[in-house]
TrEMBL record, chain A:
InterPro entries: FSAF1-like, Ribosomal_biogenesis_FAF1-like. It comes from the Eukaryota. Residues 63-75 have a biased composition (Acidic residues). Residues 98-112, 215-231 have a biased composition (Basic and acidic residues). Residues 283-295 have a biased composition (Basic residues). GO terms for biological process: maturation of SSU-rRNA from tricistronic rRNA transcript (SSU-rRNA, 5.8S rRNA, LSU-rRNA). Pfam families: FSAF1. This is Uncharacterized protein. Signal peptide: none annotated. Residues 1-154, 199-295 are annotated as: Disordered.
UniProtKB/TrEMBL annotation, chain B:
One of its GO terms (cellular component) is nucleolus. It comes from Aspergillus tubingensis (strain CBS 134.48). NCBIfam families: 18S_RNA_Rcl1p. Gene3D superfamilies: RNA 3'-terminal phosphate cyclase domain, RNA 3'-terminal phosphate cyclase, insert domain. It comes from the Eukaryota. Residues 207-319 form the RNA 3'-terminal phosphate cyclase insert domain. InterPro entries: RNA3'-term_phos_cycl_insert, RNA3'_phos_cyclase_dom, RNA3'_phos_cyclase_dom_sf, RNA3'_term_phos_cyc, RNA3'_term_phos_cyc_type_2, RNA3'P_cycl/enolpyr_Trfase_a/b, RPTC_insert. Keywords: Nucleus, Ribosome biogenesis. This is 18S rRNA biogenesis protein RCL1.
Amino acid sequence: MVGKRKREAAVVSRTTKVDEEEEKTTPQTETTDASATDVFRKFFEAQFQPLEVPGGQVTRGDESDEEDSEDEDFEEGSKSGSDWDGLSGEEDEAPVEVVEHRDIKSQDLLDKKARKAFMTSKPPSYSEEPKPAKKKAKKEKSDDDEEDAMDADNLKNDLALQRLLKESHLLESANELAPTGKNRIKALDLRMQELGAKASLYKQKMPTAHRRGIKEKAEMKEDRRRREAKENGIILEKPAPKSNPASTKRRERGVGGASIGKFAGGALNLSKRDVAAIQGPRRTTKGKGRGRGRR
Amino acid sequence: MASTSQPPLRFTSHKNFVYRLVFATLTGRTIQISQIRPSSPTNPGLAPHEISFLRLLESITNGSQMEISYTGTILVYKPGLITGSSPGVATSSGGVVRHELPAGCNRGVSYYLLPLCLLAPFSKAPIKVLFTGPGVITSSTPTGDMSVDSVRTAILPLYNQFGIFNNIELRILRRSNPGPNGRGGGGEVQLVFGHQLRLPKTLHLMNAGRIKKVRGVAYSVGVSASNNARMIETARGVLNPLVPDTYIFSDVSSAPLVPAPEKSNPSAKKKIGLGFGLSLVAESSTGCLFSADVASPPAGGEAPEDIGKRCAYQLLEAVSKGGCVAPAAVPTMLGLMTMGSEDVGRIQVGRDVIAEESTIQLARDLTKFGAPGWGLRDASGENENGDVIISVVGRGIGNVGRKVA
């Protein structure tokens, strides 16, 4: 029965009519002729070379694209050869009909897209090719697992790349990508800030004296470095411009502070303008003009 | 400008009128054009469309002066700065210059569009011009102007090769074929050219490639849409065996109305500019564009099949001339190359294209404006086909308005 199944699979591309006829013809031939031909064939093969059945071979040759190994093929071919002969005769009378399915809708859609792209007010960009719509997004379930794994992998690599890009300035000398020591802390700090940490690790709360000491030490170190470089005739980068935004900027007032005037020396001082603003626009005497009076 | 001390360049005759004015504006030289149709008994001097172009120049430049002699046969033009359509100019509303074309105009609107586009990259501000009025013909005309569709699909993409591609739009608000006797129309077209630069890129275009696709627009104004289908059918019949990737789009619109006041009815309007036409563009694999344009004659009496066939053959002819530039695009390409940086740009053109009268006139005019002469040599190598390579040295003037002091 193997032969029969195979043949049916091979004829799928034909019109259904042929299929039906084939099904009609095959059962009878199978029952009556199969055993007899089998016996003959075995006898013959024992004596001579294997048989070549012309009808079966030819049809098989041009129809099937999934042929198995050679000898198995042959066996099947010869086995079903007798019933296949009848069929091929019928085929000659009714030539194979090729039915082509073309999606008219999609063609139309493409037309519309092309029209939209061409008939705008902008000069058409000829170099760009219309991109085919993504059709094979989720076609086969079996591929999904692999894709998931790939996705996860890609995501991981992506994250690593992003981190590398962001923190590469920390890795001036280090060869390895995973920072250690001070650099690791710095990288960690960057990541935490990115995730929404309120303050940097380096802006910890500490006693003023302590902080001042740290600052002083840093300045001293920098001074020494510059001095030594100067003595040795090495030209260094220019010192970073000292910025003290706190002094130049207007200081933010507290919540409870006065919104008007200037608080100095324990007293709220109001300027003339402030007073005028509080008093509001002066009314005209009669109240005739409903709008704002002139000042 | 600084060129005041220089004597004006003298030209004669009305030929190549617009490009002379354009190059005068770009180089800042004063020009005098004399003998403009001196022997015409009925219409001596400047024609309505030329006057209209002068008005357009005046509205997009600042400080340009023009003097026209009593008979109109002599014009002195002293260019100003190309300011574009900055808001606050008298003729503009909302930064859009409104340019009305007179009813007697027999040139298509592309007559104004092509030189305007050549000026636009060197303007100070973006150029936005709305062409309206009873003289706007959007189709191709018997006077030899291309249709607006061809300007948009075959000329404007060329600017891309010079690094000019941003914010360029040509809106066809209303279509119109030429009116009776080929005069007037009621179309409306808006050009937005928003990419200004200092100097266009140097161009080296030596490989024409092979035609890979053909696109087109069939338009019918105030007549049945079946005309479009008939034109498309015949044009495709000619082109499809040669280029399978051929698409021609159809655009149908109603006839525009222009005011035609009568004694009894001062607000009367009439339909104008009925007809149909076809614009085809062929693109090669290297981005060279060739266009063809045929429209129904104003007198009528030509079948759409003939128009379609003629247009297809015209396209084939333009392609067969060879080179990388269609004849219609020569002034644009060579003009931009001349205005480019002081570097040698090369372009391959067909022998027939360079032999055209307009091309030679352009070359003569450019040399008069002080551009170094073109270097010509036969193309060699695999894609010669008897073509000529023109080497153009840029003048390095570019955009005066964008010069950093």
